Amino acid sequence: QGDKGDKAVNWKGAYNNSTNYIIDDAVSYNGSSYICKLATTGNLPTNSTYWDLLAQKGTDGVGAGDMVKLVYDTNNNGVVDNSEKLNGQSASFYAPETTTTIGTLINSATAKNTPIDADQVGLMDSVASNIFKKLSWANIKATLKTYFDTLYTTNGGAILQVNSVTKTDIQTISTYNTWIDIIGLSVSITPSSISSKILIMFSVNGSVTYDASLRIVRDSTPVGVGDAAGAKMRCTTEFPCYMNTAGAMVVSSITYLDTPATISAITYKIQAYATSQPAYVNRSATDIEGTHNSRGISTVTLMEIAG
Q1: pLDDT tens digits, residue range 234-268?
Q2: Beta strands 131-136; 51-55: pairing state
């Protein structure tokens, strides 16, 4: 049989001065523990002849050894020095949050009436083992729009938006045999759907003393013009000519429904074409002082029509 080793400490509990103690008996006394090194009866554990200190009681709130308060709290302010996790914390028990306590926290929070895109809302992710995640207000708006768009569709023929421009100043077109933009009669629109149609309505006031034509141009492409026929002018409408009444002003108006098939921004404008005599916009040809010589307005209106 091998060596049994040293005897274990024989714990006797609290010291009793009438008990006979032998070597390796251990007792507690005034918060410290002692081990008997010489058989004794009636000698206090503080008597080093009979006892060795086994574990010394620390001073309440201070302790002993390396973990004395002067070591971990050099400023004596209750804050553990060089600590990230325990800084300023006391040893306490906190009950776990419940649906009731969380509800109370939410109810007592400061209200925000106008959320912005960067704001976050917490949610339980049901497809990721119900873990807690966050969702931005921007994502919430985008998700709701996508969902509601599937519920509410715009009926065909509904007016989705209207853009309009009015020209009140005058313009003289004296560059001949080329299409010239009528300044101020240009309107942009961004269709909300590729199936939308654009209803174009324009009225041009003015006067000519010889032939002049008008046309609609979408970006750089003429639309709403007549078919090609030899050398004849392809236009949207003619600017009426009054040879013998140069003091008069007439209006040319037309309505045209275009199908741009795009959701990008597009611009519609009105152009004029004069041949050998000037064309005047918003004024008569003579434009002299007198009540029979007028000034007018010209307009372009665009309506997006649901397809």
Answers
A1: 999 988 666 555 567 889 999 999 999 999 999 99
A2: unpaired
53 φ/ψ angles, rounded to the nearest 5 degrees: -70, 125
C-alpha dist (Å) from residue 92 to 62, 72, 135:
18, 18, 33
Contact 186, 300 (CB under 8 A): yes
Q: What is the DSSP letter of 292?
A: T
Q: Return phi, psi of residue 35, to 5°.
A: -120, 135
Which domains occur in the chain, in start order? 10-55 (2.10.10.20), 120-151 (no CATH), 160-305 (2.60.120.1340)
**Cβ-proximal residues to 184 (8 Å cutoff; 6+ apart), any chain:** 165, 167, 169, 171, 298
Beta pairing partners, 159: 305
pTM above 0.85, yes or no: no
Task: Report the distance separating Cα 251 and Cα 173, nearest Å.
Answer: 16
Q: Look up tokens 């050894």; give the residue.
A: 65
> Closest Cα to residue 24, out of 12, 34, 14, 10?
10
| Three-state DSSP state, 151 | helix
